Amino acid sequence: MAMNMFLMQARTEKSAGRDAAGRGRPRRFARWRRRLLIFGFTGLLLVYGLGLLINFTAGGLKGMNVASQMIPADPRNVRILFDVTAVDADGERVAEHEIFDALLAMIEQAESEIVLDMFLINRFRGDGSVEFFRDTSRELVEALVARLGQRPDLFVLFVTDMINSGYKVACPPVLESLRQAGGHVVLTDLHQLPDSNFVYSPFYRVLRHLAFLMGPVPDYGFLPNPFDREADKFGLRQLARMLNFKANHRKMAAVRRADGRWLAMVSSANPHSASSAHGNVAVVLEEDGPIGDMVQSEYDIARASLLRRPELYFGPGSAMDLVRELELRPRDWPAAPAPYEGEDRVMVQYLSELELARRLDRMLAEAEVGDRVEMMMFYLADPKVVEGLRQAAERGARVRLLLDPNKDAFGRRKHGVPNRVVATQLHRWAQADEDRDLQIRWAATHGEQAHFKILRVVEADSGRQSILLGSANFTIRNLRGQNLESAVYLEGGDAIGLRFEQVFERMWNNRDGLLYTLDFDSFRESGASFRFKQAMKFIGNTFGLCTY
User: Fold this and answer.
1) What pLDDT was estimated at residue 6?
2) Coil, strand, or helix at residue 104?
3) Distances from the Cα of 103 to the Cα of 143, 144, 246, 247, 299, angstroms
4) pLDDT digits over 34-53, tens only?
5) What percent of the chain has pLDDT over 90?
6) Is 472 helix (H, G, I), strand (E, B) or coil?
7) Is the predicted pLDDT of residue 286 greater than 90, yes or no?
8) What angle do helix axes 99-109 and 136-150 make, rounded to 10 degrees?
């Protein structure tokens, strides 16, 4: 009896021990899971913080944030050009384009030097369905090669963005013939630009410094090419570079002619075949002062890129040879002519990055009652600019915005962010008070984009006009020192605004029997669609998770 009780007690204690052990194991596993989560989260925060620290010490590229002196110019030396596309009564496309032909004419005048900085110069075709109106990428390169053949001593510097090589460290295919002809091709070192994608880029910076993404491992392409479904596939390193959403977004050209003087163009237009039907604006200058600062900025961008990463150079000799040549480029320009003192003179200034943003902010802040504020813009999203437009209308200025509906992108359909969200917010605000004169119309695009980037303010009392135009969309990424951008500021009388007045009024009022623009209701946002797109714009603006 005693023995049976002893055995039963032993079995009970053994069973209880197994139960306690069984209960203990999940608790230990739970503790380890919590520890792993805490360690993992802490590690991510440390990596993210280190990435932010590296970003803050990057400092940007030398050659950024340029503001030349204001130069008094003869209005005949300042020309504003437009590319405009419309549809006639039969639904046929009508194109009036003049920018690219003017660029080719400039190259024909080059005698000793050509400097270009172009964001897009490639033959990517989106999803393949976009119509090609003109192979501008090929034409531009052929013109440069032909001029080099005629002038063997001609110095040609072509600075461009890595997007044209598919984010590979390689000469963009469309520029290969220029390299072979003796031209100097430089990819911009985008890594030196401040981060705009605040979710992804800090991790990328740390991994890049650890040689995890940028090491010597072969980068086999197996991912779909986001720019052209028929182009070479992307590898991991290409994708990793692209997701930073950084760009040298400048669009400028300068040539030095036989008389030693410069001729320059700053534009919103890319020499990009799939963009050849877009609406665009440009200014052509014949004033050495601002052009000198423009050219020097390009020298500095190229030097800063090659000193850090010489593998981004493609041309005759080595990267260091080009760096030394850029340091020694002659500055023996002819003596500047006496300042133009005519009553119709135009004040001209070259601006880039943060300097153009400061000028833009001042233009809106100074708009008063009775003034006219007129804008043609591809992307409008910068909160400070939107607030500046509101305040200008609040003070009594007449504000008119001609915006792209953000629905077309090289054969792909877009969702309308950010313009439709911003326009809807501004329209609701204006409708709340009948004294607020703020009107919006949409470009009637048919596959192409209204790629304009221009603002004009006309003073009511004096009639004096100020115009800012160039490569920059009015977004945080384009205005607040994250992309490379170029712009020209003009200030003067009716002479500088005449061309803009003609084109803007023709498009706003659909003159000549052509359809240029649509009323606001054509792309008005409301309900759940508006709230969803509003959230998309907020995320894009706040965290940089967008391409605008």
Assistant:
1) 45
2) helix
3) 10, 11, 26, 22, 20
4) 877 887 778 778 878 877 77
5) 72
6) coil
7) yes
8) 10
> Tokens 């313009």 appear where?
419
For residue 145, give Cα distances in angstroms to 114, 139, 325, 517: 12, 10, 21, 39
pLDDT of 161 reads 98
The C-alpha atoms of residue 409 and residue 380 are separated, in whole angstroms, by: 16
Classified as helix, coil or strand, 547 is coil
pLDDT digits (tens, 9 = 90+) for 435-451: 999 999 999 998 899 99
Nearest to 170 by CA among 275, 301, 313: 313
Tokens matching residue 36:
């792993």
**String of DSSP letters for 9-44:** HHHHHHHHHHHHHHHHHHHHHHHHHHHHHHHHHHHH
Residue 349 has pLDDT above 50, yes or no: yes
- Contact (CB, 8 A) for 66 and 299: no
Structure tokens at 446: 């048919």
pLDDT at 409: 82
pLDDT, tens only, 447-473: 899 999 999 999 999 999 999 999 999
- The string of pLDDT tens digits covering residues 206-226 is 888 776 555 555 667 888 888
What are φ and ψ of residue 316, in 5° steps? -70, 140
Strands 262-267 and 251-256: antiparallel
Contact 154, 112 (CB under 8 A): yes
> 255 or 336: whose pLDDT is higher?
255
State residue 208 phi and psi, 5-degree precision. -65, -40
Which stretches does DSSP call E strand in 335-397?
A: 346-351, 372-377
Q: Mean pLDDT over residues 286-292, rounded? A: 90
At 289 the pLDDT is 87
Q: Report the alpha-carbon angle 251-252-253, nearest 5.
A: 140
Does residue 26 have a cis peptide bond before it, meaning omega lies within 30 degrees of 0? Answer: no
What number of helices (H) and strands (E) belong to the chain?
14, 20
Distances (CA, A) of 284 to 70, 218, 434, 470, 521: 16, 45, 40, 11, 36
**H runs (alpha helix) in 366-416:** 383-394
DSSP state of 346: E
Measured from the Cβ of residue 443, the count of other Cβ atoms closer than 10 Å reads: 28
Q: List % helix, strand, coil for the chain (3-state, nearest 5).
A: 40, 20, 35
| Residue 286: strand, helix, or coil | coil
17, 20, 23, 41, 42 from 29: Cα distances, Å: 18, 15, 11, 18, 20
Of residues 496 and 298, the one with the higher pLDDT is: 298
Distance between start and end Cα atoms, the chain: 87
